[in-house]
């Protein structure tokens, strides 16, 4: 059994296509590897970005290279320093450190001068057409585009107009700067693409210094070139942009960065579109970007996911050239696998049913030793208080149990985890016939998980002592959508029609007293229930726990098929 760079145990795997490209580069050129992660600061990063982060930073780490963080801040209308800060926090949380921090806005002057150079070469022109006229003039996949009536302006006129655009003489949308390539090119992105548009908007870093801003396709490749990026790794939807990326670099004769594409991450029961995620937030369908039902990195961090689990997930998903959809259960498997090794065990009752042990002395209590984590001996043990009155899960009792039911029932015996054997002697009901209490007896010789008379029972249930228990708010999160692919909508519907009305269920439960001191973000396995973490809403007076993932592993069953 081998261990890969992200600490994932498994068989030695073959190189993915990006690793093959990099190894060929190392063997044939200078061996220098420099990648970058270039998010636009117009929203919060999601799990799909996490895969790209792991890939870009991971490849740099694996081959002794560098990875830059560069913010693609070329659209001031949608960008904000709030998103810049959140992106930095997410990357740091995942365990990566960038070599250099840059912004596309760092290069605005250089990009402008290069645009001037292209105008002088007759390769760019100022166009007075409206956005709609430009769109219609591009033609279709089968019909060539139509040249702009302003396409053949003189170099002098274009230089003058472009300078006046920069000076702020024209209104938003009044003019644009376009590259002069080929209006009949089969790749429509090369049909005289827009390089600059006018936006009289405050920029989060440059203020009002600029009122013209470069388009992504013009700024991206040149920013890579300025930073001498060797491998510009993008998701697959940018493969059609690569010829334009190369055209700008070759036209300007600058450092030849090169773009490579891989398949983006798609998850079942999840939407990744920033537009759709923003809609969920603005319509208050979720409680902000870090709502644990969201796929954002800040949300899954709040839910209790770990950086190691996300990195392991990215490694297992691998790098592909074709888009595919990954089953959400694989992500949950990775989280569960990591938490099983690291999370301490505690007992908590989410749907309490009171049990009175009638032959246990009133007023007495005692402590039993409980293992913190059977997967980690160094985690040690803790003391759990026991008394005459305890809570058990309501689902651990059935008045008329089926065959092979090994939990509590009238006349049946079970073991309390770490404690005594108890036997149900009486069922107490309210006036409506609901079970409100069980009266049981205990075997005094069976304490601490062992029985002196050699008796064994198959049922073992968890519990908390009533006088010692602390009440807590337990948030049980499920998929936000009921449909496996909420992006695949039926006619007349939107993705919002597939929202899960029970995506979060809030319960008042009881926790063992040691959990009352747990810190925000601390993670535990609630025995026989699932993995939980302390939410940011938690206070010493009111502890709040989020369910991270259940104990049931559906991925293993899928993988075995």
SSE topology sketch:
Layout lengths: L1 E2 L5 E2 L6 H12 L5 E4 L9 H16 L3 E6 L9 H13 L7 E3 L4 H13 L3 E4 L3 H7 L17 H13 L8 E4 L14 E5 L13 E3 L1 H11 L5 E4 L6 H11 L6 E4 L2 E3 L6 H9 L14 H7 L3 H11 L6 E3 L1 H15 L1 E3 L1 E2 L2 E6 L7 E7 L9 E7 L1 E5 L19 E4 L4 E9 L5 E8 L17 E2 L2 E2 L4 E8 L26 E8 L11 E4 L3 E5 L8 E8 L4 H6 L1
Parallel strand pairs: 3-4, 4-5, 10-11, 12-13, 14-27, 16-22, 20-23, 25-29
Antiparallel strand pairs: 1-2, 6-7, 7-8, 8-9, 15-26, 16-19, 17-18, 19-24, 20-21, 21-22, 25-26, 27-28, 28-29
Number of helices: 13
Range of strand content = 15-25%
The unreliable regions are 1-10
The first-to-last residue Cα distance is 22 Å
Strand numbers in spatial order across the main sheet: 14-27-28-29-25-26-15
Q: What profile does the largest beta sheet have? A: 7 strands, mixed
**Which structural class should the secondary elements be placed in?**
alpha/beta
Explained architecture:
It is a single chain. With 561 residues, the protein is of the alpha/beta class. Helices cover 26% and strands 24% of the residues. Strand 20 and strand 21 form a beta hairpin. Helix 11 crosses helix 12. The chain starts with a strand and ends with a helix.
Which key features would you list for this structure?
single chain; 561 residues; alpha/beta; seven-stranded mixed beta sheet; 13 helices; 24% strand; disordered N terminus
